[in-house]
Amino acid sequence: MNFPSKLLEEAVNEFSRLPGVGKKTALRLVLHLLKQDKSQVERFGNSIVQLRNGAVYCKDCHNLSDASLCQICSSSARDKSLLCVVEDMRDVIAIENTANYNGLYHVLGGIISPMEGIGPKDLTIDSLEERVKAGVVKEIILALPASMEGETTSFYVYRKLNSGSLIISIIARGLGVGDELEYADEVSLSRSLLQRTPFEKSFSVK
After folding, report:
1. Which of 46, 104, 107, 186 is most buried, by the most CB atoms less than 10 A from its CB?
2. What's the pLDDT tens digit per position in 103-155?
3. Do 141 and 194 contact (CB within 8 A), yes or no?
4. Phi/psi of residue 104, each to 5°?
5. What b/e string do you get for 150-179 counting C-beta neighbours within 10 Å, with b at 16 or more?
6. CATH number of 57-201
7. CATH class in words for 6-54
8. Domain map of the chain by residue range?
């Protein structure tokens, strides 16, 4: 792709580094920005810089936050005895959009995937164990993808946390196998949360 401007080429190259964005899409985005007021483009650019420089991860749940403790974890209105384990922050957003869950979250930061070199130590499972050991959490809801990797991660977490006093449940599989939480409609996701079942009934756990 030949460019009439080196500045245009550099901008297109940077946009094309984004997931799912090819050179043609990147060019379209850059040309769109060129048609906007300079002040609007500056706001766009500043918001990305501020996000990268200012955003941190919550010290408790590992969700993206503006402070060391996120708004959900610091809220006195949330049920701190209920903990929903998810793959990443996109799942937190999806569940929050249902307005049908009032507990806390724990973001693993991924799922176990040997093919991609991701093991238990690469996730925040140790931190999850520490939260459970504190004695406040009474129920863990496993809301991980209905994929082989997701199920493997759920089983691993279950084996690490399973005890007589802790309830470990899994969301109902109203979602298709392989479906991601972030793409589920709010009604289906709400039903999956409300109709969760004990984890041991979803597997033949020995």
Report:
1. 107
2. 999 999 999 999 999 999 999 999 999 999 999 999 999 999 888 899 999 99
3. no
4. -105, 175
5. bbebbbbbbeebeeeeeebbbbeebbeeeb
6. 3.40.1360.10
7. mainly alpha
8. 6-54, 57-201
